[in-house]
Design goal:
This protein folds into 2 domains: 33 residues, no CATH class; 40 residues. By secondary structure, the chain is mainly alpha-helical. The protein binds zinc ion (ZN).
């Protein structure tokens, strides 16, 4: 865990060479993650969101067909 040399808080992943807490400038070697790592994280996050969406959509489809089958029985 790298800490900001300005405010001493643990740095969060940021694409800007800047502390997310105090906005202090950071040198490239002070950044916690390289840009490539951050982009990789974004890609992963994006895939997770897609996955969650699919699960939600599936849940709604199941619910819909369940409701329809109930309606047919009434
Ligand atoms: Zn800082």
């Amino acid at each position: 865990m790298k800490k900001c040399p300005h405010c001493n808080k643990v740095l969060m992943a940021s694409i800007l060479p800047q502390c997310s807490w105090c906005g202090g400038d950071l040198k490239e070697n002070e950044l916690r993650n390289s840009k490539e790592e951050i982009l990789e994280q974004w890609e992963k996050k994006k895939n997770e969101i897609e996955y969650q969406k699919k699960i939600k959509q599936h849940g709604e489809d199941v619910k819909k067909s369940f409701e329809e089958s109930i309606r047919r029985r009434i």
